Amino acid sequence: MKLRLAMWGSAGFLVAGLWAIYFAIKSKDVPIDPLVKVLVQVTCPIAFAGSYFHFPIGIYWFFLANVATYALVGLMVETFRRQLRHAQ
Predict the structure, then answer these.
(1) Do 83 and 28 touch, CB atoms closer than 8 A?
(2) Taking 90 as the threshold, does the pLDDT of residue 48 lie above it?
């Protein structure tokens, strides 16, 4: 189970890294498309919290929060998966 949680956390780090690269490359003069904004808020919940409460988020906290969020979601998914497998 530890390996699976590490994989979930790694997926969160990868998603945050890809968004960081995307926004580093993207031109600052062009506004963010609504579809991109929704995708960022769905895949990185800390970005949603930052935009809702209007506070800036450092890149390291962005990565850390995304890894922790994905690890917690992974913990819930793996727990339910284990319970379903045990019930059968």
Answers:
(1) no
(2) no
